């Protein structure tokens, strides 16, 4: 049993479901961490978004290279209320866990899975953070579409993940070496051997209470793996 409250790193990918972090998932994750008596620090890669979406119309208003496109770190700071660090500053030895909320930013900014599927590439700082976290043995969590990033970096370890029951995405996970498990909106997939916990969230959820339940279960399972 740990004497000090576990410390989570929360990695964001922007602000908004269609081009960044899913805000409900991110906020409920931070709430779950605090309600468990733990602490967190938000991080995001200091890079440009793949695209910027008008969330009212659903249309792209800028793409990579445009002057009015947005920075992932700057946008993520909206959710973190400014209390955020460049992911390049992350050191796994300073944390007990690292968690990735979902949103298309995970498949557009943290990786390009949305474009290249299993042939995707992962942002260099995201890859470093995940590899370092795995090597240090801290617990790794992800929700919604974010498990695809874990699969690309750690799939060779044959990790178990869930993306709900999405067969197309599950097939992509399998091509990267990961094992996809079907789970309902509020269930979690716990890979105790590799210290990884995932949950579907908005891959299946239809309400905010389901997101609240799923994120709290994810955090609780992560704490179980820490023996806290």
Explain this structure to me?
This protein is an alpha/beta fold and 228 residues long. The protein has a single domain, classed as Rossmann fold. Helices cover 34% and strands 18% of the residues. It contains 8 helices and 11 strands. The chain has helices at residues 23-35, 72-79, 105-108, 113-116, 124-136, 147-154, 167-175, 208-225, and strands at residues 7-11, 39-44, 51-53, 60-63, 84-86, 97-100, 139-143, 160-161, 179-180, 189-191, 196-199. Strands 5-2-1-6-7-11-10 form a 7-stranded mixed beta sheet, with helices on both faces. Strands 3-4 form a two-stranded antiparallel ribbon. Strands 8-9 form a two-stranded parallel ribbon. It starts with 6 loop residues before the first strand and ends with a helix.
Helix content: 25-40%
> What is the overall silhouette?
globular
Largest sheet: 7 strands, mixed
Would you identify the CATH H-level superfamily?
A: Class I glutamine amidotransferase (GATase) domain
What is the count of β-strands? 11
Q: Output the strand order for the largest sheet.
A: 5-2-1-6-7-11-10
Structural class: alpha/beta
Order of helices and strands: EHEEEHEEHHHEHEHEEEH
By oligomeric state, this entry counts as single chain
Mean pLDDT: 96
CATH topology: Rossmann fold
Contiguous uncertain segments of 5+ residues: none
- What is the CATH architecture descriptor? 3-Layer(aba) Sandwich
Q: What's the N-to-C terminus distance? A: 5 Å
What is the CA-based Rg, rounded? 16 Å
Strand content: 15-25%
| Discrete helix count | 8
The CATH class turns out to be Alpha Beta
- Return the domain count: 1
């Amino acid at each position: 049993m740990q004497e000090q409250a576990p410390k989570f790193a929360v990695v964001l990918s922007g602000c908004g479901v269609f081009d960044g972090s899913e805000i409900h998932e991110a906020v409920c994750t931070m709430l779950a961490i605090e309600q468990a008596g733990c602490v967190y620090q938000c991080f995001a890669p200091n890079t440009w978004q793949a695209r910027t979406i008008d969330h009212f119309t659903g249309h792209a208003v800028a793409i990579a290279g445009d002057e009015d496109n947005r920075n992932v770190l700057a946008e993520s700071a909206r959710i973190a209320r400014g209390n955020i660090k460049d992911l390049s500053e992350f050191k796994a030895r300073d944390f007990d866990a690292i968690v990735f909320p979902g949103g298309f930013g995970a498949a557009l900014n943290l990786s390009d899975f949305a474009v290249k599927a299993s042939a995707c590439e992962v942002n260099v700082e995201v890859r470093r953070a995940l590899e370092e976290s795995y090597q240090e043995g801290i617990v790794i969590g992800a929700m919604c579409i974010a498990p695809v990033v874990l699969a690309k970096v750690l799939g060779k370890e044959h990790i178990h993940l869930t993306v709900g029951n999405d067969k197309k995405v599950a097939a992509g996970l399998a091509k990267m070496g990961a094992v996809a498990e079907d789970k309902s909106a509020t269930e979690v997939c716990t890979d105790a051997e590799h210290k990884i916990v995932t949950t579907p969230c908005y891959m299946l959820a239809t309400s905010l209470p389901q997101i609240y339940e799923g994120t709290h279960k994810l955090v609780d399972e992560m704490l179980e793996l820490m023996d806290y």
